[in-house]
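User: Can you fold this complex?
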Amino acid sequence: MRALSDVSLTIREGEIFGIIGYSGAGKSTLIRLINLLEKPTSGTIIIQDRMLTKLDERELREQRRSIGMIFQHFNLLWSRTVAGNIAFPLELTNLKKKQREARVSELIRLVGLEGRASAYPSQLSGGQKQRVGIARALANNPKVLLCDEATSALDPKTTDSILSLLSDINRKLGLTIVLITHEMNVIRKICDRVAVLDKGRIVEEGSVSEVFSHPVQKITKEFAGSLNGQQTLRFRDEGTIVFLAHSNESKLQENLSVLFGSDVLSVKVLGSACVQGAETGVTLALKGTASDISAALDRLRLSGTTVEVIRHHE
Amino acid sequence: MSDWIQSVDWASMWLSTGQTIYMTVISGVFTFLLGIILGLLLYLTAKDGLYEQPMIYKVVASFVNVFRSIPFIILIILLIPLTELILGTMIGSTAALPSIIIGAAPFYGRLVEIGLREVDKGVIEAAQAMGASRWQIVWKVLLPESLPSISSGMTVTLIALIGNTAMAGVIGAGGLGTIAYNEGFEAGNNVVTFVATIIILLIVFLIQYIGDRMTRRVDKR
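Assistant: Here's the predicted assembly.
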């Protein structure tokens, strides 16, 4: 049986790249190909100019140390404490005990688990377990972090906190993150670019806003539709995110064309139009000075448009 | 009451207790080591194991199955030539050790194998993703993570093994089984049988108690 075919992906250094698909699409196989936990029947995998598919077992082990991985079910050793779990990858590289301990406490601070170093995984919440997983994955200063459905076993609030930790790490350490998920909000919240995987093939690929504001494939439309304007979006560098709605569709269109014609604002459509109650609405990203944006929003309110600011620009 | 106490030759009773403890401890240590090796071999060489080796697996699995199936009383007799070869004698407590070990190690090996199979596949995968070698996975993941099963399995095995030390009386191994049979049954002194039983029960309870405590201590799940 062929789990994947014709898959060709280029992931840029320092970006957060998401792969979305339903279960059975081949996501797990795809992410496991990157560190060769699954061996491809044909094709190549190259990370930073090193062809992984050409390495022997020892070289591959060496290489895997610079590729961190976190998992849906965390996969911690229950027989080890938080500190012991984080020390595990460091023990594999024969790091001196003193340096190991220093690195472990540094990592515990990085993921916000101060005071829990001697707790066992069974005493931790799901979110805390994933933080241990992240610290463990980062121990050997990897260049790439693979996330295998890392938030799928967590509640929405914990998912948010793990996602913001990942996005922090991505910024702070310049780490390239590749994640697979079936949850659209994970893609929306932290990914720069996305690939849509369907039945073992990549059917669409591009920047998140591009792919989901103009979905071509049916499956992409389904994923795009799984988010309505009400959900909190966290696009990075997109500006202020607003949801505009009006009971009269043509009035909305009129207002939008005024907005698009503005000289001082740059406007981008993020979501496809959707119906919310009696109103039709659309999600936009506005870029401009704070005063220009608030002036534009005030004008819209005066014309009877419902304005909901989803996120102010930081 | 004093008749009761006097009807037992306490010197030989304590000697027998010592022999039983000697056989249990020495064969326990070897059973533990051999069982871990057999369990690891079965687990690692099995299909989809870390060192998949169908031939080795078949050989080890048949060895384990054969020696686990032979009734102990027959095994002792079958192993007399081997015992003579290793130890130069076929009589006494020490001579009983090879058959006790070969009787118990395959049983324990299977328990170890079951324990290893219970180790979360995801944790092994995580270790592989971190660049662990197969030996590092054995030492740092498989054995520590299956420690509760290794410990509770050893408790069960030790108790079964004490039963076997009693049977080893047929080759003159001594111990509480022998004294219960010779002085208790043959010489018609029921008190000796009773006392020997009590001592064996005490040893079993002690092992069970220590084993349970150890298992609980290493189990952080």
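The mean pLDDT of chain B is 93. The interface with chain A takes residues 120, 122-123, 125-133, 136, 140-141, 144-145, 147, 218, 220-221 of chain B (CB under 8 Å).
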